[in-house]
Amino acid sequence: MLNFKKISFIKFFLLTFSTFGLYLVLWAFDTRRILNRAGGTIPSGYFLFLPFLNLYFWYKYAQAYLLIVKKEQRKGLVFVYFLTPYFLQFTTSYAFNFWCQRLAGGSALFLLCVVMFLYSAFINYFFYQKGFNEFNQ
User: Half-sphere exposure of 113 toward its Cβ, with a 13 Å CA cutoff?
Assistant: First the structure.
């Protein structure tokens, strides 16, 4: 029996905010371990810290998530779950950076970081954690 921690959106959001995003890394390590026990082939969590290898980590993560939690085997869906969060985070990061520089100069870097942590929490919750919560019911 897979036992994913059931976490509400508010708790996920607050933990991400209060730890400056560190909770997202710990969450990825923990859920990776559970998915691998169920047959996933997600590489080491240390891949999260290495450029380009983190893309491979999230691709394998999406693949295992869809196979184990959602019971889906369509290859195209893996790319949706893998690429959509990256695309949303990168484009949003660019837009916030653009407007923060225009409106507040360099002093808006802190605001940008806070917004990106919270936005990452939002994306990861609705793409992955929500499915984990439903899986445990």
Answer: 11
